[in-house]
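> run fold Late embryogenesis abundant protein LEA-2 subgroup domain-containing protein
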Amino acid sequence: MSNYFIRLHILITFLFTGIILSSCKEPVPPEYTGIENIVVDEINSETAKLTGEVILMSEEKVSWNIRDVDIDVFQDEKNVGNLKIADNSKIEFGKNTVPVILIINLKEVGKLNSLLSLLVSKSITVNLRGNIKVGKFVYNKVLPVNETIEFQLEK
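> ok
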């Protein structure tokens, strides 16, 4: 094989590789849009267990995996609980609902709000702060969560 064909082969390889790499764009991660359908499952003197659905919107045709959920529940700047994902979920194109479980330590809430005000209002307002880590192949993205929610204590 002559040097001309070897150089042509190398040139075509570099051009093909360059075209492929330049056509790759950064994936668009899903967007956190809120939490809804919060229902009290269990309530006792120490804790309240709530279920709800985190809403994520995806503009990508390829699915995303939820890698980690690290969301704490705050009231008056004090950590009173945490949010956990109910099961492993994939985020598909469009609107996605991911089931979550919120565990609230009512003893901490009781210290922050008087017991009388809890009995009168029968509702609690909390802040959710943390991150949802999503990934696709080797690409990972952290979605920040900072939201205030109010829920009723009645089961």
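Strands lie at 31-43, 47-58, 64-75, 78-85, 90-91, 94-105, 123-136, 139-152.
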